[in-house]
Amino acid sequence: MKVKWEDDLLTGIGIIDDQHKKLFARISSFTEAVEQQDYEAIEDTVNYLIGYSIQHFGAEELLMIRNGYDDFKRHREEHSWFINKVYDLHKSLLKKEISQEQLNEMRDILINWTIHHIKVSDKRIFSHIR
């Protein structure tokens, strides 16, 4: 399963779009690692996602707060849900209790959730800011 950046995901905020593009590169790497059962690459991506989630979501949430975004709480709940999924996967990797089913589920979440989140939720923020 290939995943790649498409310009219809652009929000119009350069720094956010750059971070989203880097995320897509990592999702692509994760997808390949899952297919090849490359646990070192899987762990590398999960570690990246931990830092990315905190930094990127924090930047988005700061923009929402500063601009009085009305749907902040719901959007933040989406971020929290994603962070919890990454945390659960990380915990399973640390315990060496990871199944192929869990990896496939996370791959699908990374692809589907991220695309939907950017196209719908993130674009709402940036249309509000403009």
TrEMBL record:
Transmembrane segments: none
Family stated for the protein in its record: Belongs to the hemerythrin family.
Hemerythrin-like domain sequence ranges: 11-127
UniProt cross-references to Pfam families, sorted A to Z: Hemerythrin
InterPro entries: Haemerythrin_Fe_BS, Hemerythrin, Hemerythrin-like, Hemerythrin-like_sf, Hemerythrin_metal-bd
Keywords per UniProt: Iron, Metal-binding
Superkingdom in the source lineage: Bacteria
GO molecular function terms attached to this record: metal ion binding
Protein name: Bacteriohemerythrin
